[in-house]
Every structure is written in structure tokens, then in C-alpha cells.
Amino acid sequence: MEIVHLDVIPLSHTLPEGEGVGDARGFGRERATTLLRAETDTGRVGWGETFVPGRIAKATIEELFRDDVVGMDPFDVESLADRSYTDPYHFGESVFVQSAVSALDVACWDIIGQEVGRPIHRLLGGRKRETLTPYASTMYFTEADRDIAEPIERAVEEGFTAAKIKIGNGVEDDVRRVRTAREILGDDATLMVDVNGNYRPEQAVRTATAIAEYDIGWMEEPVPPENLSGYRELKRSVDIPIAAGEAHYGRFEFKRLIDDRLVDIVQPNLARCGGLSEARTIAKLATTENVGVRPHIWNSAVGLAAAVQFAASVSDYPHTRNVPDPMVVEFDRSENPLREELLEDPFDPTGGVLDVPQGPGLGIEVDEEAVERYRVE
């Protein structure tokens, strides 16, 4: 079996004027990503996702990978990540290279799973896992003036027992948002916060100190991803667990976070970090050093499926049943048809439980007509 065709598919959906959502850094109205469809000479089709603009993804794959991947046996998938650091030399830690590898890698694993009749999380060495705990990623900053309580109230109505909210607009506003979320969620729910790198270390310390009383599960990207010294300073100064990784690429960047104890939780995005092969390496590095692993998800349904399969494979080490620490997966609650409409059977996080697909590969059936509706060139 070998790959005979690659199709790079840019997708986009634009929200109405005035309906942008975002974080402390600003608003956006476009939801965009790029899918990869890989087909073998036996008729198998595998799907992957790269979270970079379509033209860049297409150029990167065409220039650096197509000649090697077309004609490749999908079972050679793990050679892609290694090859990305050596050929082309000097480009391996580039965001565009690792993002392109992500799509190719996930598509190959999807094909492998179909060929052997097993879901990816079992191929990655995880025990059989039927469900995960979703958390609502919500309370975004919005272009329109909206009640900040409404999205949390909706999450509770939908049955979520965990949520992550956006902060990063100053201590006073951060406390207001966290207090509102905690009051609505209740004391038993898990609450995380996301700064999206909008603070300097001293600002992040002030907010962390002010919100600590609300029992925060983690503080995500309190400083910019490149500010490693800032992460080091925060780890010395705050008690809230620190999480990062959505803007880090490849095993070597994550190894720096882990080896230097800059974070308590790493968050690889399966459409950016190098794919499932690289995410498995990152998870092994993290669990070896007793650092938590929780995937970041801001993707289409394909990237979500990859993240769910990966999350289901991650070791519980060092926990036993006597230390409940369920694997939680991010579920964005903003409008996104690229997540809701691309699958014949979309993921449903309501009720506080997310089913892990048990079918072969990613365990999903992509609606190719829906893909074409949102395809852009």
C-alpha cells in the first residue's frame, strides 16, 4: 500500500459583521483552517489538518514533502517527524513545517487505523477508553456588547462540569470574569483561565494572586509563548498551575518547557505540534518528568477527532483510581460550522461526557460535500 494522491483543502467561514469573538488580544470574524486528504492505491482515504493558511500549507507540502510522501507506505509515518528535522535541514522547528507534518502524519495514522481495524488511541498504546471529560471553552471577548454570564449559564445548561474562560484585560476585569464564572459553575466544577499571552510577568502575577481564591485549575499562556524567562519567573511566584503549548511546535520546543519546569501542563495542538507521532513523543517526555498533558483544540472536526484520539491514549501516570484526575479535552463553544458540519456524525459534548470514537483510524466519516461548501482557494 502506498499514498498516491494528496489534496490540500483550505476552509473558511466568516461570522457576520459585528459578531467577532476573540481573546484579550483582539477579535476575529474568520474561522479558517486547512485539511489534507490523502488517498492510497488501495482506495483508503485518510484525513489530517494543518492549522496554517491554505496557501502556505499548500506551498510547504508541495515544496518540501509531496515528492517523499507520494509513493510512501503510510506505515512509515513516524519517519516524517524525524525527517522534518533533517531534510530540509534548518527548517524543522518552523511553525509551517511542523504544521504541515501534522496534517500528513494524522492522515497516515487514519489510514493505518482503517487498514488494521483499530482506533488510533489503541494504536498509540493507550488502554481502551470509551469517554473523556469535555470542558467548555467559552466566555470569549466579543465584538458585540454581551452579558459575560450568558455563555457560562449556557455551558451549565448543556451539562458541562468544567470550563475555561478568557481573561487578560486587567486585574479588575479578570476578577470580575472569574468570580462570575465560579458563581455560576458552582464550587465543584473545574475552572481554568486563558490569558493568550497578553501579560508581562508582573501583570500575570498580580492577576494570579487576585484570582487564586476561586480555585483555578490552570492559568493558560499567562505570558507570550516565546517569553521563557517570563514562565520561569511565574513558576517561582504563583501557586496556580501554569499551562502552555498551543503556540509551540515540535518535540524540542516542548522539551525546553518540560526540562526547565516552566509549566505544569503541556498543551500540544494536533494540527500544529507535528501530529500524532510528535504528540506521542511529547507526551512521553512530559509524563516521564511528571508534567501533565492536555491537548489544545481550536480546530475543525478533523483536528478535534485527532485530539480526542490522542487524549484517549495519554497515560494516567502517576495516578491510580485513588487520585481522580480525568483527562479533559477542550470543546470550543463559539460558532464554528467547520467543527459542526464536516462530519456525518458530529461530536456531542453535552451532558459532561465526550465519546471517544471506537471505529478504525480517527473513527469519523467526513462529509465531503460539506467540505466543498467551505472550501476556498
From TrEMBL:
The keyword Metal-binding applies. Gene3D superfamilies: Enolase-like C-terminal domain, Enolase-like, N-terminal domain. GO terms for molecular function: hydro-lyase activity; isomerase activity; magnesium ion binding. Keywords: Isomerase, Magnesium, Metal-binding. Residues 342-362 are annotated as: Disordered. Its cofactor is Mg(2+). Residues 145-241 form the Mandelate racemase/muconate lactonizing enzyme C-terminal domain. The keyword Metal-binding applies. GO terms for biological process: amino acid catabolic process; carbohydrate catabolic process. Pfam families: MR_MLE_C, MR_MLE_N. SUPFAM superfamilies: Enolase C-terminal domain-like, Enolase N-terminal domain-like. This is D-galactarolactone cycloisomerase. It comes from Halopelagius inordinatus.
